[in-house]
Amino acid sequence: MRALVLVLALAMPLVGWLSNSGLLGPTNGEISGRYPTLIVAAGYAFSIWGPIFLLDVVFGIAQARVRDADARLRRIRALTAGGFALTSLWMVVFTLQWFWLALAIIWASLACMLGAAWLASHTRTHPRGPWWQHLPLSLHAGWVSLAVFLNVAQVVVAFRLLPVDAMLPWTLVLFALAGVLLLVVVVRLRGNLWYTLAAVWGLLGVYAKQHASALPGAATAADVALALAVLLAVAALAAGYLGWRDMRANAG
Fold first, then answer.
1. Which residues form the signal peptide (predicted)?
2. Structure confidence at residue 124 (pLDDT)
3. What residues have CB less than 8 Å from 208, skipping those under 6 apart?
């Protein structure tokens, strides 16, 4: 499993390069341009995949050096193997525009990465793992927690499942669902900085994109994204403070 996790970590940046070079088909940016939504982020926001992939490789190398892994690391390895493999698969499937399959894959990858981040982060049930576990896995999980809703919106527009000339009502529902997921995870992970950072980065990217968009309802969507980013940051600070206070009380 050690070698498999490392190989899958190394595969993600390679597949990402192939996908964004156009060798596999239209790039993610080109596909996003074909199906504009009110919850898509500005192009620069997706550059976060660079640090995510780099840190996932760091995780892959570090975990490969641990021969006698404890039960938690063994579970993290299994989850990250699934999450990394599904991330690479999603990039290929999305480029091929198999949108329903891509949607199922990204939700499955989120489940894997959230599970791994949970095991590596400080919670009420266990202490935080080393930085090379909690930082990469939390950052990856935080970004995908928002990306799944961007993916849902693109499926809705691609197949015209809901009105595409009046997207604001159903987009607000997606914002609400995204907000619930992000806030619940941030609180349960005791204000995890890296999870929060990735999610806030994505929401600010949504704000930037929609603030400059001419789509009906874009201004409102931008304001909602900005408000959610602020709310998430405040919730993370509060949860982090409460977690720190509990640790001090237990230590005393």
1. none
2. 65
3. 41, 42, 44, 45, 222
